[in-house]
């Protein structure tokens, strides 16, 4: 049996970083996408990263970034993983991975089984995959991710990928056990599900989410 791992994403203040780290998060994420209510600058992230223990992997979340932005972040933040949450092609994922020498996780937005199949294109070039909900076209002001939306986890059941993958999209302490059981996920990621409002993390909710997942094995 393997312990299910966790990522808490969209951290933008020291108290939330502390809550995630001390309560056992395996990954924490900083969002470098200015339209997001959770966005941080490279300078803010560098400051926040000082309090992160080495045991926690720092993830930089980007949406169709240019090289200059990634470089600016890496100048001050010891990223252990680059999360690409835009429309990056497999070629672009490969280029980023080779240029920066850091593991890359490609996020795929899922509405139907063909979106899961599309992940196959990234298997040769990504170190990890992440599955998030695709927002419906009717959702106004939707972000590329971080919308607090779930998708049908049954689509992932029995899926076999040659690289590790994370389950994301609307996870919180109340649904994460079912999400893990149905999807078979070994790593879960949340952002909106541990917030009091978009961009404002709830410290008690971070602790509760992590405590819930700590009891899960697959
Ligand atoms: O969190 C954001 O603001 C964000 C912006 C742009 C792309 C992705 C973003 N968040 C990621 O989306 C998934 C699902 O988040 P949620 O739990 O549904 O809020 C997760 O990987 C976030 O890191």
Automatic annotation (TrEMBL):
Domain N-(5'phosphoribosyl) anthranilate isomerase (PRAI): 7-211
E.C. number(s) listed in UniProt: 5.3.1.24
Entry's Gene Ontology molecular function annotations: isomerase activity
Record pathway: Amino-acid biosynthesis; L-tryptophan biosynthesis; L-tryptophan from chorismate: step 3/5
Taxonomic superkingdom: Bacteria
Catalytic activity as recorded in UniProt: N-(5-phospho-beta-D-ribosyl)anthranilate = 1-(2-carboxyphenylamino)-1-deoxy-D-ribulose 5-phosphate
Keywords of the record: Amino-acid biosynthesis, Aromatic amino acid biosynthesis, Isomerase, Tryptophan biosynthesis
Pfam families in UniProt: PRAI
Enzyme class per UniProt: isomerase
NCBIfam families in UniProt: PRK01222.1-1
Family as reported in the entry's similarity comment: Belongs to the TrpF family.
Protein name from the UniProt record: N-(5'-phosphoribosyl)anthranilate isomerase
Species, as recorded: Sneathiella chinensis
The gene coding this protein: trpF
């Amino acid at each position: 049996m393997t312990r299910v791992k966790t990522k808490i994403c969209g951290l933008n203040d020291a108290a939330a970083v502390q809550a995630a780290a001390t309560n056992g998060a395996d990954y924490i994420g900083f969002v470098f996408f200015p339209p997001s209510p959770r966005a941080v600058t490279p300078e803010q992230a560098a400051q926040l990263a000082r309090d992160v223990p080495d045991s926690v992997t720092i993830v930089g979340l980007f949406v169709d970034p240019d090289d200059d932005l990634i470089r600016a972040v890496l100048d001050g933040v010891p990223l252990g993983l680059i999360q690409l949450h835009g429309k990056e092609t497999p070629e672009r994922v490969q280029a980023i991975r080779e240029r920066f020498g850091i593991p890359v996780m490609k996020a795929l937005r899922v509405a139907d089984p063909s979106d899961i199949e599309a992940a196959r294109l990234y298997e040769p070039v990504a170190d990890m995959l992440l599955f998030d909900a695709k927002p419906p076209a009717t959702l106004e002001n939707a972000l590329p991710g971080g919308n607090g939306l779930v998708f049908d986890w049954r689509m992932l059941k029995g899926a076999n990928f040659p690289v590790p993958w994370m389950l994301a999209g609307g996870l919180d302490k109340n649904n994460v056990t079912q999400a893990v059981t149905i999807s078979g996920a070994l790593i879960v990621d949340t952002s909106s599900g541990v917030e009091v409002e978009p961009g404002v993390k709830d410290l008690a909710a971070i602790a509760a989410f992590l405590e819930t997942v700590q009891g899960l094995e697959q």
